[in-house]
């Protein structure tokens, strides 16, 4: 799939995603990263803390693993595309967390040093470093695009639903004090970029007829 085809086939989802990411960045720039975090932490964490744990699970590794498992009944090219999306997302996450911004303080570490108490969700192991980007948000947004990649004729309500779930996952990471708002915005952008990269890599696969057959059907032969 070419860059133009990617944009054309995902125009609706891309516009919605761009609106969410840009709106979030404008809000963060206007009020400040710390102010946005504290507002969410003080107003949302007490009420939605435990619910956030459910939405946060959407960004775990097994969300993409489940999609890859489902794709075994679809053309092998789609299975490889999902694998490339997962691999691209992992590379982007590692690039920042383990190299470019390694050791960047997360909210709990930052506010503990400043002597400020923040709300924490009971039972959640809150991390202290390697903040940017939010890996859960990256996975959730790349999974949202992967759903549309798997099912090109997905109704728009499905596209809206998966995008809202990805957004809920991102917000949950702030509610649980795991990430800054900017980490979530960056994770959303990199998740979309991972989807683009995965489709690009898949487009370079050879055009063999077997690439259009499901892995499951091959194993049955």
**Total individual domains:** 1
Low-confidence stretches: none
Task: Give the terminus-to-terminus CA distance.
Answer: 29 Å
Number of strands: 0
Mean pLDDT: 90
What is the helix content? over 70%
Question: Which labels suit this protein?
Answer:
single chain, 221 residues, mainly alpha, Vanadium-containing Chloroperoxidase, domain 1, 11 helices
Quick structural overview:
The chain is mainly α and 221 residues long. The protein has helices at 3-9, 11-31, 33-43, 45-56, 61-70, 76-100, 107-113, 135-150, 156-175, 181-203, 215-220. It is built from eleven helices and no strands.
Write the layout of secondary structure elements.
Elements: H1 3-9, H2 11-31, H3 33-43, H4 45-56, H5 61-70, H6 76-100, H7 107-113, H8 135-150, H9 156-175, H10 181-203, H11 215-220
Describe the protein's architecture and organization:
The chain is mostly helical and 221 residues long. The chain has one domain (3-209): Up-down Bundle (Vanadium-containing Chloroperoxidase, domain 1). Helix content is 71%, strand content 0%. It has eleven helices and no strands. It has helices at 3-9, 11-31, 33-43, 45-56, 61-70, 76-100, 107-113, 135-150, 156-175, 181-203, 215-220. Helix 5 runs antiparallel to helix 6 and helix 6 (76-100) runs antiparallel to helix 8 (135-150).
């Amino acid at each position: 799939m070419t860059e133009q085809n990617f944009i054309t086939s995902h125009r609706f989802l891309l516009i919605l995603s761009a609106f969410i990411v840009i709106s979030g960045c404008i809000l963060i720039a206007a009020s400040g990263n710390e102010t946005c975090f504290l507002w969410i932490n003080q107003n949302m964490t007490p009420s939605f803390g435990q619910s956030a744990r459910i939405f946060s699970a959407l960004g775990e590794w097994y969300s993409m693993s489940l999609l890859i498992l489902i794709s075994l009944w679809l053309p092998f090219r789609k299975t490889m595309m999902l694998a490339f999306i997962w691999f691209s997302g992992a590379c982007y996450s590692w690039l920042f967390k383990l190299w470019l911004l390694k050791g960047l303080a997360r909210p709990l570490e930052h506010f503990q040093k400043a002597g400020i108490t923040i709300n924490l969700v009971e039972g959640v192991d809150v991390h202290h470093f390697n903040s940017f980007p939010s890996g859960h948000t990256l996975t959730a947004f790349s999974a949202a695009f992967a759903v549309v990649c798997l099912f090109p004729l997905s109704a728009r309500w499905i596209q809206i639903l998966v995008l809202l779930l990805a957004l809920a996952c991102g917000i949950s990471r702030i509610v649980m004090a795991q990430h800054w708002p900017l980490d979530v915005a960056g994770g959303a952008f990199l998740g979309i970029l991972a989807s683009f990269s995965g489709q690009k890599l898949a487009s370079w696969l050879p055009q063999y007829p077997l690439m259009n057959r499901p892995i499951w059907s091959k194993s049955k032969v």
